[in-house]
């Protein structure tokens, strides 16, 4: 499963809109949509914060095999 697909599952499980994540991480509007649709990936320095927010390991977000 791709990063974007995993991210979408985690975001939806928390009941958060895409805009909520954009604001929380201080991203440009549409960034999360681009992640979820596979158009771009998050900057590496955001991964620890994203993993912490969702209560998962970084590898849970980035490993394709999971």
Overall pLDDT level: 88
Record field, number of beta strands: 0
| Helical coverage, percent range | 55-70%
Rg (CA only): 11 Å
Largest sheet: none
- State the order of secondary-structure elements, H for helix, E for strand: HHHHH
Distance between the termini: 6 Å
Note the total helix count.
Answer: 5
Low-confidence parts, pLDDT < 50 over ≥5 residues? none
Can you give a write-up of this model?
This protein has 66 residues and is mostly helical. Helices cover 56% and strands 0% of the residues. The protein has helices spanning 3-13, 18-24, 31-36, 47-54, 58-62. The longest helix is centred in the first third of the chain and has 11 residues, at 3-13. The radius of gyration is 11 Å and the shape is globular. The relative contact order is 0.19.
Keywords:
66 residues; mainly alpha; 56% helix
Architecture blueprint of SSEs:
Layout: H1 3-13, H2 18-24, H3 31-36, H4 47-54, H5 58-62
Quick summary:
The protein is an all-alpha fold and about 70 residues long. About 55% of the residues lie in helices and about 0% in strands.
